[in-house]
Design a protein that fits this description.
Length: about 725
């Protein structure tokens, strides 16, 4: 575990660089000279900052430590790597994190209750935000659920048996609470955040010195004093706390009752730490006795730079007062990066903080450096005033994960999360921009819009939505995302002598993977067999399938024939969008045609359908959206603007489920083997509804009750959309 071993309280004046040999001094002088020559660029040029971060990360990846990959040291390095992943255009850093998670089997460290051993969960949760693969967080969620059911309580006194199963030392506040907060953010379960907050304040009440606005490392240091008579406050230890405060505030919603208390402590500590920064821009290993502990130390300074730069970027700290100090600290840190990318002057674990090899480096310090760099990068981007800011508010009480935010915005922009400084996956639309947000009930989060040309790099975006015409399979049109897959039938299948299928029904492909399978399944041609990622066992035939429509007249439903033309409007990475044209068909003697536009966004089980009907007769139409019924005992649920149907199990395949949401006033009936939602539509006026599906073995919803709850939540989100405002 992170430790601060003091060997003596005697006065010892050491040179600022400790004891440096001639070759070492030459290397360090070269690094300092190079940094000072470009000091202005080092703090103001995003490209220079990013290149420095990548050099340091590259050196670290090329020099593995030998620590277990789930160790706290690696976990802090991972936190910094994930900060770099959020701004770098080089996918190798994300690949390295994924590889580490896979080698760990996404498990936490060996001790269930020791904060150091679940620090790596921070990386798992952040990586999960990119790909939303449940296995990445499943072991952590299982372990945290157990800990919630079997909490450890008792004194935080260091002499208490089992005390390290609680957050009894200040370093734990960086290692533990942010992992819990992140798990709440990516699952929507508030219990994890509540646990983190409650236990943070137990530790704070015990270790925080309200006079000095600093944390004791643990109870052993309450009565100890330095040679100058001051209290003992470990430099890196308080850096862990400041970093932990930031990483909590990134995921405590703005409306949360405890957020203000965290901000108060953060500001008080920031003000105190500003007064303890030394003339060279660094903080010393012992905060109140810099004379006796004069060695330059980069790991604690990196954490302070990260925390204070974040506060300036958030507007929580006065820019005029804190920005010069932050820039000075970053210049000092950069001077400790050698030409090959090695970060030096890192106090090793368990070493005398007054005297250590100035060439020493370690992965946890690299993590702190990269975290600091991410905030310096964001500060530099915003310095020319070209950055816009928007706020996105969830007006509902429910937690909304992966909610699409669509902006009517000109120009080529990227989106940065204002709290984490992570560039978010986004997609340029014909007349705007699309990205996604995770929002707690009533939460407001802020996002920065940055001209793409201002960024030296943009992180690659994993494609999670896809749509295409499939001529090799009788003119199917298919679309999918990381949750569901559908297809409908084109003109060729109507002429095929083996099928002669006339149907505009909607098929469901049952997926059990977050990967896109459409192209692979068509290439294999055996998609009626489960090869480990799902299969097609949903029979459509000439029915409406899952959300197909027709025009209802005279107590009968008149469906169209197969689509006659198609057009792909967007093919990922976050949205698949396309149009299908259906030629005029006879509706009780009235010719009607349709142009249907379908959108499916990443992370959603529901496709948005917008149909425009053409008819010489301009009288209103009644649209019937259907779900085909199956033989056997299924489960049907009707809401105020939705209907859902959990099909009876089909042998070992399990059950498919379908739902339809119709925002307009609708009536519901059961007719001719279908559940129908009937709603009015006017020719040439958009008629909007949503169709969704899930597979009981797909991993998302395994019961009818869970699916019904999701359908109801989605229906409420349709009627109560996110609120978007420009704030700057």
């Amino acid at each position: 575990m992170p430790s601060f071993h003091r060997t003596t309280l005697a006065l010892a004046l050491l040179c600022a660089g400790s004891c440096i040999t001639a070759p070492q001094h030459s290397l360090l002088s070269q690094a300092v000279a190079a940094t000072m020559a470009t000091s202005d660029a080092a703090v103001h040029d995003p490209a220079v900052i990013l290149r420095t971060m990548e050099r340091v990360a590259d050196w670290q990846l090329a020099h593995p430590t030998g620590y277990p990959l789930e160790d706290w040291t690696e976990a802090v390095g991972d936190a910094g790597m994930m900060a770099l992943v959020g701004i770098s255009g080089n996918e190798s850093y994300r690949d390295a994190m994924r590889s580490a998670g896979q080698k760990n089997a996404w498990r936490l460290g060996p001790s269930m209750y020791h904060a150091d051993d679940y620090a790596v969960g921070q990386m798992y949760a952040e990586l999960f935000q990119y790909s939303r693969e449940p296995h990445m967080i499943a072991p952590m969620r299982e372990q945290f659920d157990y800990m919630l059911a079997h909490p450890r309580a008792g004194s935080l006194n260091w002499k208490t048996p089992g005390v390290q199963q609680r957050w009894s030392w200040c370093d734990a506040l960086f290692m533990g609470p942010p992992a819990w907060a992140r798990l709440s953010a990516v699952t929507g379960d508030p219990r994890y955040l509540d646990f983190a907050i409650r236990n943070w304040w137990l530790t704070s009440d015990y270790l925080y010195d309200r006079d000095e606005h600093l944390y004791f490392r643990d109870s052993r240091f309450f009565e100890q004093r330095e040679a100058n008579g001051s209290k003992v406050f470990w430099g890196r230890g308080n850096g862990w706390v400041m970093g932990g405060l930031v990483r909590m505030l990134q995921y405590i919603p703005e409306q949360h009752a405890e957020r203000a208390r965290f901000i108060t402590q953060y500001r008080a500590m920031a003000q105190r730490l500003l007064s303890l920064q030394q003339a060279d821009g660094l903080w010393r290993p012992s905060l109140l006795d810099p004379v006796n502990y004069s060695s330059r130390e980069s790991s604690g300074t990196a954490l302070y730079t990260y925390a204070l730069a974040w506060g300036v970027n958030q507007g929580l700290l006065a820019r005029a007062q804190f920005e010069p100090a932050v820039q000075k600290a970053w210049q000092a840190l950069s001077s400790h990066v050698l030409a090959d990318g090695k970060l030096i002057h890192v106090q090793p674990i368990g070493e005398d903080p007054r005297k250590f090899d100035p060439q020493s480096s370690d992965v946890f310090a690299v993590g702190g450096f990269l975290l600091a760099g991410s905030e310096m990068y964001r500060m530099a981007l915003a310095s020319d005033g070209a950055v816009q800011e928007i706020s996105v508010r969830n007006p509902g009480a429910d937690y909304r994960l992966e909610q699409s935010v669509e902006l009517a915005q000109s120009g080529d922009l990227v989106v940065m999360d204002a709290l984490t400084s992570r560039v978010l996956p986004s997609q340029k639309l014909v007349n705007g921009l699309l990205f996604q947000a995770d929002l707690a009930g009533q939460e407001t989060r802020r996002y920065l819009l940055i001209p793409r040309q201002k960024l030296p790099a943009v992180p690659p975006v994993q494609s999670r939505a896809h749509a295409r015409f499939v001529p090799e399979r009788l003119d199917d049109f298919a679309w999918e995302n990381d949750r569901v897959a559908h297809r409908t039938y084109g003109p060729a299948v109507m002429r095929d002598p083996k099928e002669l299928l006339v149907s505009s029904g909607i098929d469901v492909w049952s997926k059990s993977t977050r990967k896109l399978v459409l192209d692979d399944w068509y290439r294999r041609g055996d998609y009626h067999l489960d090869r480990g990622d799902g299969l097609d066992f949903y029979h459509v035939g000439s029915s409406r399938g899952c959300g197909g429509l027709g025009i209802y007249a005279g107590q009968s439903l008149y469906p169209s024939r197969n689509f006659s033309a198609w057009k792909v409007l967007a093919d990922g990475p976050l949205r698949a969008e396309f149009e299908l044209r259906f030629e005029h068909w006879n509706v009780a003697g009235r010719p009607v045609a349709e142009v249907r536009r379908v959108q499916l966004d990443a992370g959603s089980h529901f496709s948005r359908v917008e149909s425009r009907f053409d008819s010489v007769d301009k009288a209103p139409l009644t649209v019937g959206v259907g779900i085909v019924q199956r033989e056997g005992s299924g489960h049907y649920q009707q809401g105020s603007n939705s209907m859902s149907y959990w099909e009876p199990a089909q042998g070992s395949h399990g059950s498919n489920a379908c739902a339809v949401i119709v925002p307009a006033s609708a009536t519901y009936l059961n007719q001719a083997g279908h559940y129908l939602a009937l709603a009015p539509a006017k020719p040439a006026t958009p008629f909007v509804y949503y169709l969704g599906a899930v597979w009981s073995k797909g991993g998302d919803f395994s019961s009818a009750a869970a699916w019904d709850a999701h359908v109801a939540a989605t229906a409420s989100r349709v009627t109560e959309p996110l609120v978007i405002q420009r704030t700057r």
